[in-house]
Amino acid sequence: MSLRLIPPVLLAAALWLGGPVQAAALVLPQPAELQARLRLQAQVVRVIEPHLSQAGRDVRRSYRAYPAPALLDELLGRAWRASPEAEIEFRALDGFVSRIPVAQLLRFPAFLAFARADGQAFQVDNHGQNERQVPLGPYYLIWDNIAAPQLRAEGGAQWPYQVVQIQLRPSSQAALLPAGMAARWAEQARAAQTYCLSCHQINGYGGDKMPLNLALRARQIEAGQWQRWLLEPAAVKPGTSMPPLPPGLPQAQREALATQLRDYLLALPLAEAKPAATEARP
């Protein structure tokens, strides 16, 4: 299997003409092939592992990983950096999707990990989703939240694992903030993308792991039930894989965030929803 790159000249031209381009999705080679072809050296990156850490107990773990911006330069050419409002989509085996703004990848230390530094199994217990020994490979997007402690409050919301594909995509603003909504709802739209849209969708935009339309769902359940689902989903449905809003945030902030997300979803125009899966839903 050859390493499929987005031709840098094509990407740069598209960005210059009217960018950002929505480049073709790039299926990532397996780690051994990627290592053989890259000019980069893997680093050992120590992080506070958000999937293992719980309130009052930080768990540190070290991974072997490539700096994400340098790796994206190798795969896409440096032209991806030209549009900070664009996004890099990291897609996992199960349809989980993280769309990370280019500006965020350039601001904070992000890495694409492929192994644990201690040689132990490349897996994690995801306490927030009630899952044990979850395989992380082939790739796991991690952040140096020791050097950048402000990232810890978000928990693991933007730490996708089992990443198999990346893609440069336009900004999500048009999908999440229809005309006239940006001035009032931009912060809530960003929160929805961070905490909800890796699995769920808004009017067809979002992840494929549990693609129910949250703009519709917010209209179907009352405010108290919505709060319970977002703050403590395991209490509503024991065994659900839906994580709560980050427990690392103060409780009052979590409650306010749940309310703001619902208000934003109710303010959105409602498009026809796709058929939803039958697993736990908020």
Automatic annotation (TrEMBL):
<dbReference type="GO" id="GO:0009055">
    <property type="term" value="F:electron transfer activity"/>
</dbReference>
<feature type="signal peptide">
    <location>
        <begin position="1"/>
        <end position="23"/>
    </location>
</feature>
<protein>
    <submittedName>
        <fullName>Mono/diheme cytochrome c family protein</fullName>
    </submittedName>
</protein>
<dbReference type="InterPro" id="IPR036909">
    <property type="entry name" value="Cyt_c-like_dom_sf"/>
</dbReference>
<dbReference type="GO" id="GO:0020037">
    <property type="term" value="F:heme binding"/>
</dbReference>
<keyword id="KW-0732">Signal</keyword>
